[in-house]
Structure to design on (375 residues):
């Protein structure tokens, strides 16, 4: 088959959704399919087009399994919602042109969301080329943005919700990551063939990521050897309740054997670092190269998956599967009964507590009596 795939990130970009789509594309290519990937220039790491990729807003690469068209993402400050909307519109416009003018007629079109407007590009391409339209939903939008308070204007919410339902109803299939997301999306179809919504969880390469010795080069580089490492590895954004990690580090500040690590970058990191000033037991480490992920995961004795209240019903962090593949225990702060909580409990892989509850109440490392009295 000839497949047209539209996605916001693709290798060598290091965004989690880029990792997912790169894995999916690789698996499809191994099965003999030809692909045309329409995506952005690499920009996730610093929220700016990476060095060596600038100069042209549109470039195409040929591969053994097809081609990759990379477009300028018009990166902006994540906290500036109006600017991000304009950026998404610009990228969506370019993606629509690239998809509709593709030389090879696709047998199917698949789009990854968010960003939600990219679904319009895929739908138009599918309609123009008379091909099936598959909508791959990683996070349910605008639900996530509304829960975070990033979008509060009722007209904007109404418009985004209308576009969401429009795309669901016109997709031949909608794929989501969990039963929670399936119920969310199917409910919005209001009887208009909810059976088109299918659960296909994200996955992880268990040959690349597997249990390994925690005392590795990453620990030695950042002075973590011989200590209990409580790790958050991922995007440092508005969705994660990482203020709990700071509070937990304060509780354990007198424990020389325990150290906290926030590995990653994002729009909320600067504020988080300011709130953690004076805490010698909390380390901030920049996002590591993709090939170092197995080492980073192995270095953590406990891995954290904190999501703000309500978000676990519209989002499933892909980091969860990587942590499990690395054989590390999980401490998740998420809504009860959601995919993350259920997965952790079914696997016997750790503890799930309520969203935004103080993480230190459930740490596997016992607190010292003095800390309990202070609290």
């Amino acid at each position: 088959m000839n497949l047209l795939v539209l996605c916001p990130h693709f290798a060598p970009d290091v965004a989690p959704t880029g990792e997912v789509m790169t894995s999916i594309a690789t698996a499809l290519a191994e099965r003999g399919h030809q692909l045309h990937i329409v995506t952005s220039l690499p920009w996730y790491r610093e929220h700016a087009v990476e060095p060596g990729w600038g100069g042209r807003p549109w470039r195409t690469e040929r591969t053994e399994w097809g081609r990759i068209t990379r477009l300028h993402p018009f990166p902006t400050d994540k906290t500036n919602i109006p600017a991000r909307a304009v950026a998404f519109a610009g990228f969506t416009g370019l993606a629509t042109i690239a998809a509709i003018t593709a030389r090879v007629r696709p047998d199917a079109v698949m789009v990854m969301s968010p960003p939600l407007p990219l679904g319009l590009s895929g739908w138009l391409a599918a309609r123009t080329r008379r091909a099936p339209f598959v909508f791959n939903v990683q996070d349910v939008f605008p639900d996530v943005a509304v829960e975070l308070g990033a979008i509060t204007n009722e007209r904007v919410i109404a418009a985004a919700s209308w576009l969401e339902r429009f795309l669901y109803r016109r997709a031949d299939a909608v794929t989501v990551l969990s039963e929670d997301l399936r119920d969310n999306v199917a409910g919005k179809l209001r009887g208009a063939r909810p059976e088109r919504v299918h659960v296909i969880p994200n996955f992880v390469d268990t040959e690349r990521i597997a249990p390994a010795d925690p005392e590795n080069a990453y620990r030695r580089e950042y002075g973590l050897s011989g200590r209990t490492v409580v790790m958050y590895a991922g995007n440092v954004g508005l969705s994660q309740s990482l203020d709990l990690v700071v509070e937990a580090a304060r509780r354990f500040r007198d424990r020389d054997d325990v150290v906290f690590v926030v590995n990653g970058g994002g729009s909320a990191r600067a504020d988080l670092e300011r709130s953690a000033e004076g805490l010698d037991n909390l380390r901030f480490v920049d996002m590591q190269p993709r090939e170092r992920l197995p080492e980073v995961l192995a270095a953590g004795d406990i891995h954290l998956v904190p999501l703000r209240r309500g978000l676990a019903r519209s989002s499933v962090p892909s980091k969860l599967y990587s942590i499990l593949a690395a054989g590390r225990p999980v401490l998740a702060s998420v809504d009860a009964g959601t995919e993350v909580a259920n997965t952790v409990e079914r696997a016997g892989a750790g503890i799930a507590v309520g969203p935004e509850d103080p993480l230190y109440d459930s740490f596997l490392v016992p607190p010292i009596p003095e800390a309990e009295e202070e609290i």
